[in-house]
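Thread: ME8 complex, take 2
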Amino acid sequence: MSKTFYLTTPIYYINSVPHLGHAYTTVIADAMARYHRLAGDRVWLLTGTDEHGDKIAQAAAKAAVSPQALADRNSAAFREAWQRLGTTQDDFIRTTEGRHRTVVQAILQKLWDVGEIYLGKYGGHYCYGCERFYTEKEIVDGKCPDHQTPLTFIEEENYFFKMSKYQGWLIDYITTRPDLIRPERYRNEILGFLRDPLQDLSISRPRRRLEWGIPLPFDDKYVTYVWFDALINYASALGWPDGERFHTFWPVVQHLIGKDILKPHAVYWPCMLKAAGLDIYQHLNVHGYWTLGGGKMSKSVGNVVEAFALSDKYGGDAFRYFVMREMTFGLDADFSEEAFVGRLNADLANDLGNLVARATTLIANYQREAGPAAAAGPDDTAIREAAMTARRGVEAAMDEFAFHRALAALWEFIGAVNRYVDSNQPWALAKDPAQRPRLDRVLLTLAETLRYLGVMLTAFLPDAAGKILAAIGHTAAPSLADAEIGRLDRLPTVQKLSGLFPRVDTKEAGAAPAGSSTAAKAGKPAQAAAAEPAGPATIGDFRRIDLRVAEVVAAEALPKSKKLLKLTVSLGAEQRTILAGIAQHYAPADLVGKKVVVVANLEPAKLMGMESQGMVLAGSTDDDGALAVIVLDRDLPAGAKVR
Ligand code: ME8
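Output below.
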């Protein structure tokens, strides 16, 4: 049965233009919405812009334009940004729209009528950047803890929402719903905050000080406090109180926010909803902050990564993959172009891109003579099971917004399929007519793997997924129900698909203008520069090194060493023992049968009391320690020279 799913992003302030942080939230919201559509759910994805308040009025004054003109211009910039990133929101709300203003005023009137709002006096330290008062306890060195700018003491008569009376109810509501605010660290943070007495919330600003806002319906000398106005967008966009859309989607509403706006969403908003008689959201999903070189990136500090330049340069899918894979949902992560390119090369170009190129090429090359396939053997069954495991992993991870875990589960599967190709060697099967049915089974398994990946990747890498599905002639709309292996008994016609994610030369990336030399800003040397050899190598230097293809015939872990694996390799005419420092990256069984490249004329070395007679070539990254052994992408006899 299809379910309904309603997800919102924050509505972004239009005093600045979109940056990486905004792009991150919107992209992961988009991936989540796509994922639910793939599962057949009825989905509504909302984003928009937050256009009232001091901050906007001040930015407009500074730019010598009217607040409305600034709002129009910058709201359009957000809209265009999402168009460039290809996100699929169903609605984009602006808080200056009539449909929103009407609802804010109706809710205010309702609360006023039932005595939830009163006129009172308040004096406090106010931050214009945050649009809020700070308590003595929160102030750091007399400054805003967020912006590090001086606060202004303001005393004035204002309207207050009786939030304090909801404290007990709110604590109880959160305590009895363990996954209301998630991940748990943010739930704990809010429960901690609620140990101190909760104050009433000032919900108005006098018009003599601020004109730019929604007038209070019961006193037009005041405009509505911007947070009270903004939060209501989630309901006004659905047509509260009685739109069809409201009835369909409100019962399942989930919010996605960054940790900076936890308090308004976890404290003010549920109290407002309760007072207005609306259901509380199902989940508040909170992500961490992107930093640059460990420092804060948004709001006060201007060093913002050009997310769009990176996305244009390396492709929208690469950008989506990086931000979803790199950040553990809920925690902070550091952004750098090197890490971006590292993941692009390792996970996208190498693991996924190569698999797609290999599988489509093999099928395209051999599909003409295809006949009835042999029955599925243990290897094929293992792939089918790995696919099911990965799908279950994705489903469980996506239930909790754990994008990083969903992708890790899929890449585990991609690794298994790459090993399946290595060990089944379809190119070798093709040489022996008696093996033709087995070859056809391998090709069928690969074709199904491509369909599976094309479907499963739709939410994460929509462009690449579309290309994979097109290459195998899958024209139906992708559906999670098709992410299953073991259904086909005939090969589909497949087009070769190579270069899905071209590798990025890290030398070029280091000097790249896009991302505005994030590495340099972050105070880190570009990786390419650090890896540069002392001087140019001559062809003569290179020829002195005897590189050979070697087949790993046996591999074992050494109980006393965490790092070394003992490999027995065949160079055709001879066998050698090589101790390779790859135990943290490979299980011995993963290597047996692989054709690798070794340095055959390396001076033997004694390690752990054994002689190592050569060296296995592997690529690795300095920063996150990823490592991959170099293997051949086509079969060659052991002992063949590598030049
Ligand atoms: O707060 N890392 O708008 P805003 C990750 N209008 N995400 C980041 C980020 C970073 N460094 N910087 C910003 C507002 N974000 C209010 C919201 S909602 C009713 C009103 C993202 O333009 C993250 O989603 O300051 C954060 O919560 C949001 O942008 C804040 O956007």
